[in-house]
Amino acid sequence: MERGYWIRSKPVYTSLLWHEKATSHLIVAQGQGGMAVLKLLQLMHPKQPITVLYTPQSDADYSKTLLKVVPEGLHILDTEEKILQKLDSTLHTLYMGMRLYIAGSEDFMWTVAKVANKFGIEDAGMMKELTGTLARPIYCVHCKAITHDVTTNIGKCSGCGRMLFVRDHFSRHLGAYMGLMVDAESPGDLPEIEEIYP
Amino acid sequence: MSMIDVKVAAVEQVTPLVKHFTFVRQDGLAFPAFSGGSHVVVSMNVGGRVFRNPYSLMGSPADTSAYHISVRKQEHSRGGSLFMHESIEVGSSLQITYPVNLFALAKKAHKHILIAGGIGITPFMSQLFDLHRLNANFELHYAYRSPEHGAFADQLKASYGSQLRCYTDSQGGRIDLLALLSKQPLGTHVYVCGPNPMVVAVIETAKNLGWPDNTIHSEQFLSPGVGEPFKIHLKKSEIEVHVPADMSMLEAIELAGVEADYLCRGGVCGRCEVDVLESDGALLHHDHFLTDAEKASGKKIMPCVSRARCQKLVLDL
Question: What pTM did the predictor assign?
Answer without folding.
Answer: 0.89
